[in-house]
Every structure is written in structure tokens, then in C-alpha cells.
Design brief:
mainly alpha; Multidrug-efflux Transporter Regulator, Chain: A, Domain 2; 3 strands
């Protein structure tokens, strides 16, 4: 955990977890993986996050919802770096999203094929056993 200036607003780990609907364990894991940084609250010593880190956590949640893995998130964090160089991260993010778009397109094709197979098989069963439409 890093130290922070006393005048910086800090949000306790429990409040962040509750607000975002995740567990404190998830936040600790992301910290272990280098995705986020926590700060020690002066009065209690428990983990807390700055408003900037809260925005970063929300960004991580969005990227996870889009299908990015922890490893991909680590790559983005490395590209972004301590200097907060968005221009280094965005091209990597776009490339990762392109890969995920391709995977989704493939999955849609597989599911469409599966649906056709199910409909065909259903019709065969319907015709073979002369089932009435009730």
C-alpha cells in the first residue's frame, strides 16, 4: 500500500466494494496483480482508494464486462504506466477489443449453426412422430 497526502480524499475499501457491487477480495486481488493501488488510511490503517483510483476500478469493471482477461488488463496497466500515458494504452486496447470482436463474431456463427441444427432436429422429430401442434 502506498502512502498519500493527508488532504487527499480517500474512500474506504468496503465503501468502494459496496458501491460497485464487488468484493473486497476482488479489490485486493487486483492490487496484487498490479491493476490498482490502495492507500493506507491514516486513522484506521485500512485500505482506501482515491477518486482517481475509483474511476480506474470502474474502467476495469467495464473492460472485464467486455471480456478482457486479467492478463490483458495487466498489459494495459503496463502501457498506461505511472506516467498515466493514455496514448500508450489506447492502441493496445483497440487491438484487444478487435480480437474480442472477432471471437464474439465466431461465437455468434457457432450459435447460429447450433440453432439451425436444433430447429432441423426438432422438425424431424415432429414429422417422424406425427406430433400435433397444441
Amino acid at each position: 500500500m502506498d502512502r498519500i497526502a493527508e488532504d487527499e480524499e480517500l474512500i474506504p475499501i468496503g465503501d468502494v466494494a459496496t458501491t460497485l457491487g464487488i468484493t473486497t477480495r476482488t479489490l485486493r486481488y487486483w492490487e496484487e496483480m498490479g491493476l490498482i493501488k490502495s492507500y493506507q488510511r491514516p486513522e484506521g490503517g485500512s485500505r482506501a482508494y482515491t477518486p482517481y483510483m475509483l474511476r480506474r476500478i470502474k474502467f476495469i469493471l467495464k473492460l472485464k464486462a467486455l471480456g478482457l482477461t486479467i492478463r490483458e488488463l495487466q498489459d494495459l496497466a503496463e502501457a498506461y504506466g505511472d506516467a498515466r500515458r493514455t496514448e500508450n494504452m489506447i492502441p493496445r486496447l483497440i487491438g484487444m477489443l478487435d480480437i474480442h470482436i472477432h471471437k464474439v463474431d465466431e461465437k455468434i456463427g457457432e450459435l447460429s449453426s447450433l440453432r439451425r441444427d436444433i430447429v432441423t432436429y426438432r422438425q424431424k422429430m415432429f414429422d417422424k412422430f406425427n406430433v400435433s401442434k397444441e
